[in-house]
């Protein structure tokens, strides 16, 4: 079946609202699709001259994939490109510390099974995706609804004009673009924080960085030892091997399409928070001399990495941004522009997708131009309280197996969440809370968790003092 044969989803009646999306990454493309479906008129600008094909992989949860059921092409393509992962812990001799374990969601009640079924054929397991393939899938779907990303458009300044009920951006060539609503989906370091928070958000290095790549599995498939050592699980699923030792965490994963590896290490000369700045394999061996003692097959996986495919992505903390909208509500941030997640938390893409779904639904419920500020501010309120999850990556270089941390990724409160349904059910309550100050208790959190504003300083200090750092509640619940 060709991609052209797929039916498009039912589009809601037009609302006559124009939206300018800045950034054609994961959150921006999903926002374009969902806003189109909810009856808004969308254009997307992107600073890169052409589609970016860099990156390796990320985890996408059912909370976001559930939305693909409304999109016949996304639903089919997603099934083709996704893979489910088992996990095994190893030491740096390559010896197994724990047997491969299937990463299944915890089901607490019978009704959980119905939720799996709703997700239509996707097993209740951890799903991984190649970022380039996932991005291409979203962009292909967008082209099918007739929207083309406008490449080579770099926004340098956001502005709003409440009297005229418009907002816009200025591009680096001086051109100005305006719309009824501007969605800042321009990722880490977005210029939009100047207008939402009133200042740039300070970045602070964790002192840790990740060498990371994924390249064609064909490159290693002719090496029998690599194939044997990075074998599949009994049911044919790929196994992600987590190798741990003092000061380092490495991952290896071979699947049908790709060989991926990463090493989390102390920052080195080539480390930077960039998805495009490649480093060389020689840099890896130079900065981690311990690798001389690793088994030859593991070293070969690293040596076989194609030139220009290897990144050394520095992990950087930014304090949470409690406000994602401009004061008039005509500019709203989504994805990394609103909340930067450490890429080691396995959650950034997912949260960007959920933001897109939630924002589109809120605008649909608001239903008219004059209510855009209500919609963006309610969206902010509904989504903000999940934020701590992505930053809850306390022991990046913790030297022991951390099954508890992985189980948190599979907790019922995370995978059961449906951002569209949540917006539908709680929009009016959240709006009342905004207008009248009535209490609003989020249920999009670990059971028993009460969200309190926090900063990295406060969390680090609390942990140093041996106090509860505010991670109260049942994170595995
Ligand atoms: C090329 C690339 C590869 C990545 N690979 C991985 C990966 O392998 N694993 C992983 O976990 N995460 C990866 N990420 C990050 C991940 O996609 C995001 O953390 C997450 O999906 C949230 O998506 P986002 O749309 O908010 O941000 P992003 O996906 O980063 O998208 C932001 C987009 O905005 C564009 N942009 C930035 N500034 C401007 C501007 N001024 N004007 C116009 N456009 C602008 C960027 O070029 C980018 O396309 C990658 C990001 C990029 C850009």
TrEMBL record:
InterPro entries: FAD-bd, FAD-dep_Monooxygenase_BioMet, FAD/NAD-bd_sf
One Pfam family this sequence matches: FAD_binding_3
Keywords: FAD, Flavoprotein, Membrane, Monooxygenase, Oxidoreductase, Transmembrane, Transmembrane helix
GO MF entry, a single one: monooxygenase activity
Top-level taxon: Eukaryota
Sequence ranges assigned to domain FAD-binding in this UniProt record: 18-363
Coiled-coil annotated residue ranges, if any: none
Positions of transmembrane segments: 15-36
Record-stated family: Belongs to the paxM FAD-dependent monooxygenase family.
Protein name, as recorded: FAD-binding domain-containing protein
Organism, scientific name: Talaromyces islandicus (Penicillium islandicum)
Classification of source organism: Eukaryota, Fungi, Dikarya, Ascomycota, Pezizomycotina
């Amino acid at each position: 079946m060709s991609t052209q044969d797929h039916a498009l989803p039912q589009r809601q009646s037009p609302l006559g609202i124009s939206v300018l999306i800045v950034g054609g990454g994961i959150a921006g493309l999903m926002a374009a699709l969902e806003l189109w479906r909810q009856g808004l008129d969308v254009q997307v600008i992107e600073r890169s001259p052409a589609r970016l094909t860099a990156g390796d992989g990320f985890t996408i949860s059912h909370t976001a994939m559930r939305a693909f059921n409304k999109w016949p092409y996304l639903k089919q393509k997603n099934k083709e490109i996704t893979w489910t992962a088992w996990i095994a812990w190893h030491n740096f001799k390559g010896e197994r510390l724990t047997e491969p374990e299937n990463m299944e969601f915890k089901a607490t009640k019978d009704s959980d099974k119905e939720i799996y079924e709703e997700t239509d054929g996707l097993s209740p397991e951890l799903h991984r995706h190649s970022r380039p393939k996932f991005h291409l899938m979203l962009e292909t779907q967008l082209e099918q609804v007739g929207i083309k990303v406008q490449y080579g458009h770099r926004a340098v300044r956001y502005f709003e004009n409440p009297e005229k009920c418009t907002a816009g951006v200025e591009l680096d060539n001086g051109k100005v673009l305006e719309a009824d609503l501007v969605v800042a989906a321009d990722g880490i370091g977005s210029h939009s924080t100047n207008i939402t928070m009133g200042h740039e958000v300070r970045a602070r290095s964790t002192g840790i960085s990740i060498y990371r790549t994924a390249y064609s599995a064909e490159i290693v498939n002719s090496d029998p030892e690599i194939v044997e050592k990075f074998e599949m699980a009994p049911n044919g699923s790929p196994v992600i091997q987590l190798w741990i030792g003092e000061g380092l965490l490495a991952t290896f994963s071979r699947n049908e399409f790709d060989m991926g590896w990463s090493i989390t290490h102390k920052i080195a000369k080539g480390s930077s928070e960039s998805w495009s700045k490649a480093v060389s394999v020689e840099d890896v061996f130079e900065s981690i001399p311990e690798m001389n003692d690793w088994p030859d097959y593991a070293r070969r996986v690293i040596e076989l990495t194609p030139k220009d495919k290897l990144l050394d992505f520095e992990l950087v903390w930014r304090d949470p941004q409690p406000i994602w909208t401009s004061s008039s509500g005509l500019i709203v941030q989504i994805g990394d522009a609103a909340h930067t997640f450490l890429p080691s938390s396995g959650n950034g893409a997912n949260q960007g997708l959920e933001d897109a779904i939630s924002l589109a639904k809120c605008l649909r419920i608001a239903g008219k131009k004059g209510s855009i500020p209500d919609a963006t501010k309610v969206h902010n309120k509904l989504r903000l309280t999940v934020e701590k999850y992505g930053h809850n990556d306390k022991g990046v270089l913790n030297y022991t197996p951390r099954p508890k941390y992985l189980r948190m990724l599979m907790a019922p409160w995370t995978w059961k969440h449906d951002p569209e349904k949540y917006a539908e059910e709680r929009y009016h309550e959240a709006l009342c809370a905004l207008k009248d100050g009535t209490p609003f208790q989020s249920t999009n959190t670990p059971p028993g968790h009460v969200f309190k504003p926090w900063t990295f300083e406060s969390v680090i200090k609390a942990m140093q003092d041996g106090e509860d750092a505010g991670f109260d509640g049942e994170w595995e619940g």
